[in-house]
Amino acid sequence: MNQSRRDALRIATVLGLAITAGILKPSDVFAADWKSGGFDAKSLQDTLKSLGASGAQISTDIAVNGPDIAENGAVVPVSVTSKLPKTEFMAILVEKNPNPLSASFTIPEGTEPTVSTRVKMGGTSNVHALVKADGKWLIASKEIKVTLGGCGG
Question: How far apart (Å, rounded) are the C-alpha atoms in residues 28 and 24?
Fold first, then answer.
């Protein structure tokens, strides 16, 4: 057994014993920095507020890319690119979804600020890209028309 595997086994054993003894809770170990507030919000304003981005300014240095018309709202490709230096966070919000926050990404320093994913859209909606760069919150938007709903429709 190599050294790194032994070290990982020791760490897992110690954490398991600490959880069993009640010294640590599983949430302390496995999801220490999870903040679900943004994903639980029911409106765009509540989502922005929960993320601390209520005063986000519109920016032309952020690009939201996606189809003008999506044939299937269950799998809509969306990408976000930021030209802003020191981009540290990106989120994709679908305004008319029951829970607008669809995805959030922490961007490590030195990483190209571009993300791409597929989101579920219940119908035609504005898709917003929320970016935190150099401590400032900025936002850009694009309307995507959906011909077949993805959120139960």
Answer: 6
